[in-house]
């Protein structure tokens, strides 16, 4: 009887120990080495974060450059106004120089293009014909008599 109990008890005990060890290994193993999908997701997240940082850096540097450009333009405008004030021979010339400096590109207002007149004929997709002459689809069209 004791031998029969031992025959059944050892495999059962080995099965229980195997299940417990398998459960512990299964719980600890995924945390130690993430799956390839998790690694890919982490890699994509890192690349996305890097891209976002590059975009922010790009627009910050663009804003700084535009600010410098605006300041340089303002400095040129001030220099030209100062030159007009100091180099103009009389008040009329000085006023003309300053007015040209503050207008659009030194030119007067531009004339706008006028739209086409209403009398313009719309293009046709067929050949015009005289009132009593045959049309292009007529059998005798283009034949000399």
Helix and strand layout, with pairings?
Blueprint (H helix, E strand, L loop, with lengths): L1 H31 L3 H52 L3 H12 L43
Helix pairs in contact: 2-3
Your description of this structure?
The longest helix has 52 residues, at 36-87. The chain has helices spanning 2-32, 36-87, 91-102. With 145 residues, the chain is mainly alpha-helical. 66% of the residues lie in helices and 0% in strands.
What tags apply to this protein structure?
single chain; 145 residues; mainly alpha; 66% helix; flat
Tally of DSSP helical segments = 3
SSE succession: HHH
* Form type: flat
Give the N-to-C terminal Cα separation: 130 Å
Oligomer: single chain
Structural class: mainly alpha
Q: What is the makeup of the main sheet?
A: none
Over all CA atoms, what is the radius of gyration? 45 Å
Residue share in helices? 55-70%
Total strands: 0
Mean pLDDT: 80
Share in β-strands: under 5%
Low-confidence stretches: none
Question: How would you summarize this macromolecular structure in one to three sentences?
Answer:
The protein has 145 residues and is mainly α.
């Amino acid at each position: 009887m004791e031998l029969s109990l031992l025959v059944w008890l050892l495999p059962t005990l080995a099965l229980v120990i195997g299940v417990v060890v398998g459960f512990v290994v299964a719980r600890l193993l995924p945390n130690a080495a993430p799956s390839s999908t998790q690694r890919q997701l982490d890699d994509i997240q890192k690349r996305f974060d890097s891209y976002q940082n590059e975009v922010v850096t790009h627009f910050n540097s663009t804003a700084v450059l535009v600010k410098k450009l605006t300041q340089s333009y303002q400095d040129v405008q001030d220099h030209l106004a100062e030159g007009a004030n100091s180099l103009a021979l009389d008040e009329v010339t000085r006023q003309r120089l300053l007015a040209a400096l503050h207008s659009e590109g030194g030119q007067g207002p531009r004339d706008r293009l006028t739209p086409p007149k209403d009398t313009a004929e719309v293009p046709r997709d067929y050949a015009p014909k005289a009132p009593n002459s045959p049309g292009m689809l007529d059998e005798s069209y283009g034949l000399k008599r």
